[in-house]
Amino acid sequence: MKGKIWTISNILSMSRIVLMIPAVYFFTAPITFHREISLLIILVAVATDALDGYVARVRNEVSEFGKIIDPLADKLAIGIVVVLLTIFGDIPLWFTVTVLSRDIVIFIAGLYIKVKTGIILPSLMSGKAAVSILALTLVFPILKYPSLQWLYDIFLLITLGLLGYSLAVYAKRFVETVRVHSPGK
Predict the structure, then answer these.
(1) Where are the alpha helices (DSSP H) in the chain?
(2) What class, spelled out in words, does domain 8-180 have in CATH?
(3) Helix 34-58 and helix 64-87, axial crossing angle in degrees, nearest 10
(4) What is the pLDDT of residues 66-123, one digit of tens each?
(5) Taking the CA atoms of the chain, what radius of gyration do you get in angstroms?
(6) Confidence (pLDDT) at 35
(7) So where are the chain's domains?
(8) Which of 14, 41, 11 lies closest to 25, judged by CA?
């Protein structure tokens, strides 16, 4: 793997995975404001997602490992949160299956590209936007404030649209990359 692993930007990405441990603990803890505390930890994790790429570019720390750990941390963090919310009955199973299926398809396609071409493709802006809106959407079921249900319903629709759009953009890049790097080209 080219480049350094223990860079500030990569540590920020890895911290997103580690932050899920206290987030899950507080979400399930029988204490007052447990969901709010969990949400604060999740928001810190979201902030690391906003910072890691910026830090990597500013400090010239863009690495092959970073291209892997950043989206993997996103997928793991989002996966943990949606599964947890589904277990507690806060979001529908079909939504969790949609989110996880999209992430699994993108991850497997990325692995395929890496194995076939040796290229590690970076995350796309459409994917980053979809995950950011998804994270915002998940705030509503985490807090479970009935007065915000209408806002959650709107964000859920927007999120589904962005997830579908980003999947289509990733699929297009996958097809183009395979076509360009196929034998005989």
Answers:
(1) 8-28, 34-58, 64-87, 93-117, 125-143, 149-180
(2) mainly alpha
(3) 170
(4) 888 888 898 899 999 999 999 999 999 999 999 999 999 999 999 999 898 888 888 8
(5) 17
(6) 94
(7) 8-180
(8) 41
